[in-house]
Specification:
D-Maltodextrin-Binding Protein, domain 2, 10 helices, 2 domains, 5-stranded mixed sheet, alpha/beta, globular, 6-stranded mixed sheet, 11 strands
Length: 281
């Protein structure tokens, strides 16, 4: 009887004082701007390393579930309503989410070889026209209606070149970067806008495309929901800013994470604020 009592007390002691017995699951939010299978392949390695790093920092087992929303809008809703704990969004989606829930916070932005921007591209077929001015009278494939590259920046660029929606023969929103590139390659549209990394990937797969215009895009922010406890938020930020798993970063095609700059997303806010101008003529 005495031996049983001692074992029971020891079990109680270890379960209450050794934090590794505790566990927690965080939900990471994304939206389907590419094929979901491609997204999982890109993000699983970095999330697995984050699980290890967070477990070490927080002293309890941390696991991360991935929630991929089928649209930008649903992804924004899942973050602002607290259904996901942290998320990786494009700048335009972050700005829209911040308007809905001002208490969400950026904890890091992606580093592109030390830079806080990457490239977007407007492309055509290889034997097609070579300049933005030639887009007049032709069809155009945009990405998602809330896409930074696929809508707001590309329409802003067209607008600055005095090209309005009415100057296009037709246009559509195809929701994903890869769908835009494939549609242009197949001749379904005369031109389209997508991420340069997706453009490169499609060319490597044999799709025929030609870039006619490149533009800078702020790197993507990683954001925490309103109400996430400070210890978890601090651990996430520390893990990202010190992240050094080069294999996981290589798959994501990023070199690490940086603190955001205050004015980093101003250009996107300006593009969103003037987005109606593209349809004004």
């Amino acid at each position: 009887m005495q031996r049983y009592f001692i074992v029971s007390v020891l079990m109680l002691f270890f379960s209450s004082t050794n934090p590794i017995y505790a566990s927690e699951t965080l939900v990471f939010g994304l939206y389907a701007n590419e094929k979901p299978s491609t997204i999982i392949k890109k993000f699983r390695p970095i999330l697995q390393q984050l699980e290890v790093d967070l477990t070490h920092i927080m002293g309890r087992e941390i696991s991360i579930e991935t929630d991929i929303a089928p649209s930008y809008e649903q992804g924004i809703n899942r973050l602002t309503s607290g259904l996901v704990d942290f998320a990786r969004f494009g700048p335009a989606s972050y700005i829209k989410a911040k308007d809905i829930e001002p208490k969400i916070q950026i904890i890091a932005v992606e580093s592109n070889n030390g830079n806080r921007h990457f490239k977007g591209v407007i492309c055509t077929q290889p034997d097609s026209f070579n300049t933005l001015a030639n887009i007049r009278g032709h069809s155009f494939a945009f990405g998602g209606k809330s896409s930074t590259v696929g809508r707001y920046l590309s329409q802003h660029i067209l607008l600055k070149n005095n090209i309005y929606a009415s100057n296009l023969s037709s246009f559509d929103y195809l929701s994903r970067h890869d769908k835009v590139g494939i549609a242009v390659s197949k001749g379904l549209y005369d031109a389209g806008a997508l991420k340069f990394s997706t453009y490169q990937s499609l060319i490597q797969k044999g799709y025929k495309l030609k870039a006619i215009y490149y533009f800078d895009v702020p790197t993507k922010p990683w954001i925490i929901r309103e109400g996430l406890d400070k210890d978890t938020a601090d651990a996430l930020q520390t893990s990202l800013l010190s992240f050094n798993n080069k294999d996981a970063l290589r798959i994501l095609k990023k070199s690490g994470f940086l603190m955001p700059k205050k004015d980093q997303f101003n250009v996107i806010g300006d593009a969103i604020a003037h987005s109606a101008d593209f349809f004004s003529k």
